[in-house]
Amino acid sequence: MIVVSLVIGMGIFRTPVEVANKAQLPEIFFVAWMGGALISFFGALTFAEIGSRYPVAGGFYRIFSHCYHPAFAFMVNWMTVISNAASTASVAIIGAEYIQPILFPEMDSSVAIRIITLTAMVILYGINMAGIKMSARMLNVLMIIKISLIVLLIAAIFVAPTPAMVNAPSTSLSTTDWLKAFWLCFVPVFFTYGGYQQTMNFGSDIPNAVRTLPRAIFYGIAIILSLYLLVNFSYFRVLGFEGLKNSTTLAADVARVLLGDYAFKVVAVIMFLSVMAYVNASILSNPRVYYAMAEDKVLPPLFKKVNPRTQVQEFAVSVFVVFIVLTLFFSSSFTQVLGYVMFFDSISLIAASAAIFVLRHRAKKEGDPAGIYKMYGYPWMPALFIIVYSLVNISVLVSNPQASLIGFLLFLSGYPLYRILVKLIN
Q1: Best CA proximity match to 331, nearest among 319, 346, 341
Q2: CB 352 within 8 A of CB 110
Q3: Quick check: bond before 379 cis, omega within 30?
Q4: Where do the H-state alpha helices sit in 104-249?
Q5: Which among 33, 425, 2 has a CA at the least distance from the CA of 244?
Q6: Less packed terminus of the chain by CB within 10 Å, N or C?
Q7: Sign of dihedral through CA atoms 221, 225, 231, 235?
Q8: Whole-model pTM?
Q9: Is 307 helix (H, G, I), strand (E, B) or coil?
Q10: Which run of H or E residues covers position 164?
Q11: 3-state DSSP: the chain helix, strand, coil percent, rounded to 5?
Q12: Is the pLDDT at 353 greater than 60, yes or no?
């Protein structure tokens, strides 16, 4: 359940559109989703061993600092902080795309989406600053809504009035074009599968990790793959491949085909509220990264300051929301933000997964800790994971060079910023 809940977010309700447009053919579309599951499985096993070998709070920041250097840890996490804000912004855009046809049907969609997202961010910021936190019950409700929507979408396979897929135009691609299309699918596919890397935070908490962890990861990824393939087949069957490529509100469009315009509006509102709840949870959780960095004295103590009355990290929350708003201000397109996010994430995931080689090398001298989980398939599984994510990075570079340049410059800017902050704070 942990693996499933870490991976299944809001992306599956939007990214299939991006995958379909890049795939061009249904067979490439489905092979990309299956390939993404396999590579994600390799990555989850890799991060599970890293977490078992170095069980410490702080996630990527602590791992980078331990295996590489504090400066590199800051550079990657400085970029990850921005990536998390951009990822949150991309999810907010998904919600705005669902509600925009209802609130502003006549307005230019890009302007309307920007208005909706910025307004929602202001409201959520006010709620967080007032000290009102989402309870565990609210988060459970959100998960129930998402699972219910997925089940509804899968059910459409059996009750769709007429299979729209028969109307898809026939297209043929050369072997080179086929492989290129498959390669370009990596970016949205891996965005949707992201989250399994958090298994590194549970390696020390699981009894009999050698047996339990790989089984949990295997079954979790199998469940995710099954759900993703079924829901994508439902999109494909109900809307047709061309309809899938041109939709921006997949869940609502499937509901409209099945149950009419009223269902479309109801699902659109539910999706918007679900997305905003996720964004709110992100605003609550991400400032904790700043707290850990402030504890290591690589960020000013102000990032640790908590309002004694509301228990809110007011300054840290404000900074995170500013990053989100800046992302939304400069881009109201999900596709554009997706490029920034995956460029950031691929660098951090490549560096983090490579830590397994550093930890294994040190273990040759120091010995393995007792009772840890050691993955089968080492070193080939982590090596293949790193190669594929390197291709993801190259894919962003090819398809969105502006995002790559901005991401690279932000990464490099982390080093002088680290030196300045360390000098000022210490």
Answers
A1: 341
A2: no
A3: yes
A4: 109-129, 136-159, 175-184, 186-193, 209-246
A5: 33
A6: C
A7: positive
A8: 0.79
A9: coil
A10: none
A11: 80, 0, 20
A12: yes
Domain locations along the chain: 2-425
Tell me: pLDDT of 39 over 90.
yes
Pairwise CA distance, residues 331 & 352, whole Å: 28
The pair of structure tokens assigned to 83 is 């990536």
Query: What separation in angstroms does the CA of 133 have from each of 56, 60, 67, 85?
Result: 26, 25, 35, 19
**Amino acid type, 178:** W
Under 8 Å between Cβ of 84 and 283: no
Per-residue tokens: 373: 């989980």
Q: Helices then strands (H, E): number in the chain?
A: 17, 0
Contacts of 172 by beta carbon, 8 Å cutoff, 6+ apart: none
CATH H-level superfamily of 2-425 = Amino acid/polyamine transporter I (1.20.1740.10)
Nearest alpha carbon to residue 74 among 66, 65, 84, 87: 65
Supply φ then ψ for residue 134, to 5 degrees: -70, 130
Lowest mean pLDDT among 64-68, 126-130, 254-258: 126-130
Alpha helices by DSSP H, 54-108: 59-67, 70-103
88/10 Cα distance (integer angstroms): 10
